[in-house]
Amino acid sequence: MKAYEFPAKVTSEGKIELPDTVLHQLSHDQQVKVIILVNEPNEDEEDDKAWHRLAAKQLLKGYSEEDAIYDTL
Fold first, then answer.
1. Bridge partner residues of 10 (DSSP)
2. What are phi and psi of 58, to 5 degrees?
3. Which one, of 5, 27, 7, 25, lies nearest residue 16 by Cα?
4. Which of 42, 40, 33 is closest to 2 using CA atoms?
5. Nearest partner of 22 among 41, 36, 8, 38, judged by Cα
6. Rounded distance, CA 16 to CA 47, Å?
7. In contact, 17 and 25? CB cutoff 8 Å
């Protein structure tokens, strides 16, 4: 069995784009085995995201309809 390692991108349609260099090395109608590895965010990144969500939620919580007048300035 031969293995190829390369970065790939998942499109907005949910499809994985393979680099042309890899596609040229594969035979048409060939069965392949796919293993997908993704980077997991570390704990600090997760904490940062949680703080950003909380800050945005708290900021919007203090916004009222009367404040909409300032949006037109």
1. 16
2. -70, -40
3. 7
4. 33
5. 8
6. 29
7. no
Residue showing tokens 């007048």: 69
Residue indicated by tokens 């708290």: 58
Q: CB atoms < 10 A from the CB of 20, how many?
A: 8
Question: What are the start-end ranges of the E strands in the chain?
Answer: 9-10, 16-17
Mention every residue, 6+ apart, whose C-beta is less than 8 A from residue 4.
Answer: 22, 25
pLDDT digit string, tens, across residues 31-69: 999 999 888 877 777 788 888 989 888 887 777 777 777
pTM for this predicted structure: 0.46
Q: How far is Cα 57 from Cα 64, in angstroms, rounded to an integer?
A: 13
Angle at 36 between CA 25 and CA 41, to 5 degrees: 135
